[in-house]
Amino acid sequence: MNVSMKKPALSTAAKAISISDVNLYYGALHVLKDINLEIKPGEFFAFLGPSGCGKTTLLRLIAGFNTARNGKVVIGGEDVLNMPPWKREVGMVFQSYALWPHMTVARNVAFGLEERRLPRAEIDARVKAALELVGLEKLADRRPSQLSGGQQQRVALARTIAIEPKVLLLDEPLSNLDAKMRVEVRRELRELQQRLQLTTIFVTHDQEEANTVCDRIAVFNEGRIQQVGTPMDLYEKPANLFVANFLGTANILDGRVIGSGADRTFEVTGAGSIPIPPGTDVPPGAKLVFRPQYATIGHVQPGWVSLSGTVMHCEFLGATVRYSIGVGTATVMIDVPFHSGAGLLPIGSPTVLGLQPSSALWLAE
Amino acid sequence: MACNGTVNLILNDWFGIRLPFMEGLNGVIFVQSLHYFPFILINLSTSLRNIDRSMEEAAQNLGSSGIRLFRRIVFPLAMPGYLAGASLVFVKVFDDLATPLLLNVKDMLAPQAYLRVTSVGLTDPMGYVISVILIVVSIFAMWLSAVAMRGKDYSTTQRGGGGLAKRKLSRGESVIAYGVVALILLLVLSPHIGLLLLSFATVWSFSPMPDDFTMAHYARVFGESSIYIKNTLIYASLAGLIDVVIGGAIAYIVLRTKVVGRRWLDWAATAALAIPGVVLGIGYLRTFYGITLPDGTPLATLWVMVVLALAIRRLPYALRACYAALQQVSESLEEAAENLGATKQRTIRRIVLPLMTGGLLAGFVTSFSTAAVELSATLMLIQSNSDAPIAYGLYVFMQSPAGRGPGAALGVIAVVLVAVCTLLSHYVIERRQKAIGMNI
């Protein structure tokens, strides 16, 4: 009994992932375009983007289920691009969990270890350790069909980490769980990843999931990486209109640049102009972008710029009130903190918007 | 394949050997294996198609590949289809009368039951004893497969579907794969080729190929023996029609109503699978024995009995097709019709039936084409040549050496009939599904 009490820790060594110049085609369709990415050892990294953007395709490429025409996928210093999936030592948790229904939980978890022809004693010990890690040691003899969605998800995770993979790939692991479970499981995932210090890639289309658990995020659109950065970076300094719009709410105003040098201004179509701070990079075809909480309504602070508009709509959200303001031909959203006793602005009334120039961004497509 | 068949003559010429493929029980085993091989193939390929691709990928991801991957993941997941196919084949072979009779193997249960009843008469108790044994063993086999499959129907626990990943074969592997497939195809098609040659042959004896070719057999079959074809079309169409009507009704009752005992209805209809044709025939003979119509015709041997027997024998197949068709019609489509004021009857007529047409047609064709070549039950019930279908005529022709040519021609007609029906139904169903934008 004493032997089994000595829990063998699952040992995982953090490995870096380096992807360079990867292009992938499905027939004539160019699915992944010039992918270059560096993921640091021990990092919790997210592939974020809308459906069909190529994030799962890239994950499957790393796992070996897709093949690229060119480029490199280096894991822990070894190029794995031409290696079959079973030799890559890359652990993947599938969106459907892919638990084999003809095996018990313990047999599922033991599978990868048996494939590696490990001694039975070690297999048993590692299965036990993996199941303890996810808190399912009591359900070892159950069949997958006798488990809840959350439990199945944890078995899939235990099965993967039992082989002590070089990296962990999670393909939308929370999508089959209800809202409450999702919050719980994503916290558990983060804790587990921190404990194991395992380089992890997490595929999701939910920005909140990516923001809350990941160290860094790569935002995908139409087969291309749009930007890589920490959640805060992406929110504060989006590289283009797509990233600004995909992460959080962004107000986007059409207009054109007038003047040059230090006197440049941005004329918002039908609503007035805003001076562009010196040194600001304004790409051709850029639009003015700002977040709802970085503007005021009804008053303009010193040094801020003002735009005229009309109150179109308001939503009481509890801590804040979200106003929709018609500005020229566009409508923007402004969040105003709610104070007890304060009234709401009447719909249809004219108003002014105050905007802090340093919080304004000029972004192109 | 027989002692003096093409293959053995060639083997004898080239190597001086003959292989007893078709001697006695060997022949029965050989023919039945070829005949029922599609049952296993269809079940197994459906099973493989239903395996969630991530099941295989998860195993590869954990280090498994090749034969081990097949043995540990793919095969166990495909097992239900394999078992279902195997048990069905067992039951069908077990109760098959035509093959052993044509191959002159008499010491099997089904031929014994037939010969007892036809030679000794209906009063011989041995016929009934054999019938009971046939039923008990058939039911036991189906029960065994049900027990073996209990808790192993994985299709509902897998979410993805999509089948296994396609593999790229190396040059050598491709050669082996194509070689095996070609060999199997040749084996499966060799009876058809032989039959076709025989149907056009003037004399074909002790030579690998016929001496000369003629259309006389077809002329004879279409002339004096066209009654067989006409009877077959009538019997099989009526049986198919009865099956689709009853099958559709049972499917609706079982899937869409809460009628007490609907499960029993389902089992009772499916139980026909376990009732050998010979037994069904004997049962009919016994039940209606001695009852005559006002004009003196004995009821048991009236052609209507053949239609009824065929309909009951084929009901389980039509029923499965009807179930599948009804399952494809989402209940919300019916609810929408009722919500807009249609009564149950009108909903069935205007919504359910039109959407089920493809499935019903598939059921009809399955019933029709299998009933068209059924011999077990008909052999028991047919008393006069004028009432006989193709399969019976084929059996009668094959009893004499002179009848082999016309018999083969009749066989070719049966094969063509079934093939045309199958192709036609595929075509109609596909067109219909495209037209209404299935799947719902």
Summarize the structure.
Chain A is an alpha+beta fold and 365 residues long.
Describe the secondary structure blueprint for this structure.
The complex is a heterodimer of chains A (about 375) and B (about 450).
Chain A: H1 2-5, E1 17-26, E2 29-39, E3 44-48, H2 55-63, E4 70-75, E5 78-79, E6 90-93, H3 105-115, H4 120-133, H5 149-161, E7 167-171, H6 179-196, E8 199-204, H7 207-213, E9 216-221, E10 224-229, H8 231-236, H9 241-246, E11 251-253, E12 255-258, E13 265-268, E14 272-275, E15 287-290, E16 295-297, E17 305-316, E18 320-327, E19 330-337, E20 350-355, E21 361-363
Parallel strand pairs in A: 3-8, 3-9, 6-7, 7-8
Antiparallel strand pairs in A: 1-2, 1-4, 4-5, 9-10, 11-15, 12-13, 13-14, 15-21, 16-20, 17-18, 17-20, 18-19
Helix pairs in contact in A: 3-4, 3-5, 4-5
Chain B: H1 6-15, H2 25-49, H3 53-61, H4 66-94, H5 98-102, H6 109-120, H7 125-149, H8 171-200, H9 216-223, H10 226-256, H11 262-271, H12 277-287, H13 303-328, H14 331-339, H15 344-372, H16 376-381, H17 390-398, H18 404-435
Helix pairs in contact in B: 2-4, 4-7, 6-7, 8-18, 9-18, 10-11, 10-13, 10-15, 10-17, 13-15, 14-15, 15-18, 17-18
